[in-house]
Amino acid sequence: MIRIFALVLALLSLPMTTHAQELQNLLQAHQKVVSKPSRKTVGPLLEALVASGLPNVAQFLERWQGKEVYSRKEDGLFFYAEKSGTDIALLDLDSGETVEVVDSKAANQIKPNGGVRKEIASALVQFQLSDPDIKRRSDAVNAIARNMAGSMLAPLLASIDNEPDAALKARKEKIANYLSARFGQDSAQRVRAIEAMARDLSVEGRATLSQILETKIEVSQGATQSNVAATLAVGDDISREEAYALLVQEKSLPAALTENEIRLALEANVVGGKAGGIPVAQLDDLAKREAAYDTLAGDGLVPERVRESDVDAALAAYQIQSVFLGQDSAVTEAALKAQSGVQTRVGVNQFFDLSLDAISLASIYFLAAVGLAITFGVMGVINMAHGEFIMMGAYTGYVVQSFIPNYTASLVVALPLAFAVTFAAGVAMERLVIRWLYNRPLETLLATFGISIALQQLAKNVFGTQARPLTSPGWLDGAWIINDVVQISYIRIAIFVLALLFLGLLLFVLKKTRLGLEVRAVTQNPHMAASMGINPDKIKMMTFGLGSGIAGIAGVAIGLFAKVTSEMGSDYIVQSFMTVVVGGVGNVWGTLAGAAMIGTFQKGVEWLNPSNSLAAQTYMILFIILFIQFRPKGIIALKGRAAGD
Fold first, then answer.
1. What is the pTM of this model?
2. Residues 6+ apart with CB under 8 A from 313
């Protein structure tokens, strides 16, 4: 019984010992490469290791890459090692058990350089594709995507069927399709893979098509066997000088001499005050310099000069073509067709993405300007401190978050509190300052401008000059990704929804409530409204407070994605006034139209000139100046008696 048990143990251990010995034998066959690897010589060894199918190859590659492999000096065998002071424990390549402990001088640590480690990592990817850890599998797929090679296609395809994660399986299939498009076994396989990419908008897919369609310039005489992309016309596609310089480089034709080279040649051959039989004093003329040079060339003193007729003859004798690096015309034709379709879809989606950005920016401008539209429309007050009410709302949100760490709860508290704080500040400002300056626009402008400066300084004194964080809830993190071209952040979507809610709320207040009725009455004819028992002063106070409160809520929304500083209101006051003026003073729908127009125009200019954001602001102001010349009352002008005020 004991003998049978011992025999079973021996049989179980035999494959492992055999595998370890096979790995050691394989390494010994490439001992010099393992001991002193280089990027040029390590390739065949890695291919042999991968092809061996040994189960311990992956572990060896990982430890070799990590500089954990040592070579014993006395026999050149390879081991893993663990240091302990001046001694090294040599570990078996398979079992990991200690074979012996030697002095550190008895073994050499193998230190592959960065290039070799990169090659090892590429070979190791094939084993990581089926690793139990999903992160390692995902990292392996991403590594293949970063550095696509034909050798990765077979192991990637082999790992797809057994991939348990659906998202990673789809990712593997997509990368495998890219590899098939570039490195497929035959033309039909590559064409099928390329056709499957016709609707792929990803950057990786577009890059793959560009790599398939990569070209080079080729000079040929007569028919060519290359896969021609285009024939370059001299003068249109390539200049005459560039074309002949290419012939000189590719076909070793004599180079055209520069004027300086001709001058130096003449200086070197001046004899008796003459060069080429022409007096030096006459060589200021280009034609005579060339004639003198031709004389010297005829005497064999200098090389022959390339004339214009020689250049014409050379350009007529050769063809300059852009040729595909790939020789399969069926593949390049399929790639060209797919690329054309992808570029069209990318353009459409870029327009859609730009439209979403414009809508998002318009919703921000609407939130910032709608409060100003109410106060400006009803009261005719140019409130330069409106931006500071936005700033006050943002700082209110920051203070609330300081006391309520839950960002969702703090946001729920901050929105109504910001409205209350700025509503009260607006009422106080109207009662203390604005009420004494009605119908005096210049004095009102100066007074509110002074108040804005005072509020900015107060904010600096209380909160400092450093930007303060106003953090959005976790459910607003990230973006809604429609495809690889179109995406919009959730915070922008939330602001858009908030703008729609305020639009509906304001329309309800103005159209369906007594306050709205009285506001519209005071807006159209304050004297008639007063005779009907409406208190215009009270309505103006409430209206100013309402507009200021809405600015406070806008400040909370804007602060979620913009910096919260004492100057943040200055970034929006100009756009707010422009939105109100363009849309139509005193009209909520006009404010919405103005915000849409300005947001769309600004995003359009930024798309045309993305490297200069200041240009968008400048062109936008110029556009508005021109617009109000033709429509001074805005897009949606007031009708009735208020329109004539």
1. 0.70
2. none
